[in-house]
Design brief:
The protein is an alpha+beta fold. It has a single domain (about 1-65), classed as Alpha-Beta Plaits (2-Layer Sandwich), CATH 3.30.70. It is about 15% helix and about 20% strand. Strands 1-4 form a two-stranded antiparallel ribbon. It has a two-stranded antiparallel sheet with strand order 2-3. The longest helix is centred in the N-terminal third of the chain and has 5 residues, at about 15-20. The chain starts with a strand and ends with a strand. The mean pLDDT is about 95.
Length: about 70
């Protein structure tokens, strides 16, 4: 599975990065329109487990099929 990030919704809370079992989530340097540094996913590390989707309070993630 692939995970898509809606960077404009990210409020940099860090829950997803904290709970990611593969440490595939990090923050980018650019600032989104809300004034936060949004997340990005390292596709090489991501296993598509969906934990980021589950813990995110802002609906930043979309889990896509293969």
């Amino acid at each position: 599975m692939k995970v898509k990030v809606k960077q404009e919704r990210c409020k940099q809370c860090g829950l997803c990065a904290e709970y990611c079992p593969k440490k595939a989530i990090s923050f980018i340097e650019e600032i989104n329109t809300a004034g936060y540094r949004p997340v990005t996913i390292d596709d090489e590390k991501c296993i598509g487990c969906g934990i980021c989707y589950t813990v995110c309070p802002d609906g930043v993630y979309e889990v896509l099929g293969n």
